Every structure is written in C-alpha cells, then in structure tokens.
Amino acid sequence: MVHYSIHDHFDGSAVLLTGSTGYVGQLVLEKLLRCLGVRTVFVLTRPKRGEDIQQRVDKLLDSPVFHLLRGNEVLRKVVPIAGDMRATDLGISLADRQRLSRETNHVIHCAADIRLEASIHELLQANYEGTRQLLKLCCYFNNLQSFVHVSSAYTNMNAPVGSLVKEAIYPLSYGDNLVDDYELVQELLAMPAHNANSRAAGLMKAWNFPNNYTLSKHLAEYMVADFHKHCKLPIAIARPTLISSVAQDPYPGAGNSRGCTIA
C-alpha cells in the first residue's frame, strides 16, 4: 500500500495560488500557511486603481480569516505576482514567468467567475481562457508536481435527472460528432456579444445546461483534461458543491457572508 502524506507533499514546496481574494481561495491560503510547511505561496493578484498588489495582499492577510496567524512569520511566505486571469498570458511579466517556471512545485487554481447569468464572453474569458493560459504557463514549469483545478459539481447538470455522475470527463457532441471545445469557445468569443449570448442560449437548450456558468465550467474541464493527456501535466480536478461557511478553523462561520457559494 502506498502511503500518502499531504504534509510531505507540500513540505518545503512553492505553491502558485489563483483566486486568493475569493472565498475558497483565501481559506486555501490560510490552510497552506497554518497547517503545511510550504516554502512560498505565490498569489496571482490583479492590481486595482489606487491599490498595488502588495497593498491588496496585505489587506487580505489582515482580514479575520487570518486571525490565527497575526504576527506570525509564515505570512512572509506570501509573494504577490501581478496578473489578471482575463489578460493575454495572464498579464504576468517575463521576469515573474521565469521565476514561477523555476520555483513552482504545485498549482491550486481557485480563480473563477461564478456569476450564473453573466455574459458568455465574460464567463469564457475567465473560466475557460484564463484556465487555458494558466495551463500553457505550467507547461514550462521545471518541477511541477501537481495542478489542482477547482471545478464544480454542477458542470454536468446537463445529465438526466437521477444520473450517477462519475469521476470522468463527459464530452459534448453534435449528433455523432464530438465537440471541439477550443473551436467552439473561439467561435463564441469572435462573435459580437449579443450574437454570442444567443448562440450560447441555443447550445444550452440543446445540451440541457441551465446557465452560462455551468456551460463555461464544463468546457473548461474538457480543456483541462486535454492538457493532462497531451502535455502530461499532473492534474487533478476537484468538483465542490454548495460551499457554506466554515464549521471550525479559522473560526466557526468564517468567510461566506452570502450564505452558500456555488463553486
């Protein structure tokens, strides 16, 4: 029997985390710092007007979720990387890309646009194209040991009621022909926004998806699986369901003031 230890897996390693300012991402960051012996956590952070990336990270680490780590030296392990999931090459500078390539051992991809009825352009840019750009970057990492893609249990809501959804990728099809996810996404992104939304509405009706969000996450899973197959990246896909507040650490009820989040 193979013995697996999550402590050994992350001990002394460098982790690249996306979505650290979101609900799930900040809890992952807190857990990495408090419970595991990571060496560095790179957090992809989008600059905002009047607030640089270091200020944004400092503000995050000063939030109540991190109260157990106040004054702890482990907070120095957090290194902000300027970037944007909707930008070309994620908006990461060449110097930062080279550093990430040299040092990163694990990637935890929590960033996502979880608005159910946002435009198909916005959701594909964030959930599909952003993920694709991140995976392209990871293809050049020298010592990548794992890539965890946080997906959603609702990516397969198009399955018939009562279906057993297995730990598998479910491709879409037009009749007997499998859908090329990349070609479809590029087709939608090339259309004017109104036309793309109309086209997406037709596809959702044909494939039985309830909203643009679930379609975008389904297509993203298909693409992630392709990178695993063709680029040999060590990928795992996590499919959380409704995410409510924390039961215990860092404190009961932490984090999700909006109730439940659909991942």
Tally the helices: what do you get? 8
Q: Major sheet, described briefly?
A: 6 strands, parallel
Derived from helix and strand composition plus strand pairing, the structural class reads alpha/beta
**What is the helical fraction, as a range of percent?**
25-40%
What is the end-to-end distance?
A: 33 Å
Strand content: 5-15%
Would you write up a description of this structure?
By secondary structure, this protein is α/β, with parallel strands linked by helices. Helix content is 38%, strand content 14%. Strands 3-2-1-4-5-8 form a six-stranded parallel β-sheet, with helices on both faces. A two-stranded antiparallel ribbon has the order 6-7. Strand 1 (14-18), helix 2 and strand 2 form a beta-alpha-beta unit. It is globular, with a radius of gyration of 19 Å. The model has no long low-confidence stretch (mean pLDDT 92).
Summary tags:
single chain; alpha/beta; two-stranded antiparallel sheet
Helix/strand layout:
Elements: H1 6-10, E1 14-18, H2 23-35, E2 40-45, H3 53-61, E3 78-82, H4 94-103, E4 106-109, H5 120-138, E5 146-150, E6 173-174, E7 177-178, H6 181-190, H7 193-207, H8 212-231, E8 235-238, E9 242-243, E10 261-262
Parallel strand pairs: 1-2, 1-4, 2-3, 4-5, 5-8
Antiparallel strand pairs: 6-7, 9-10
Helix pairs in contact: 5-8, 6-7
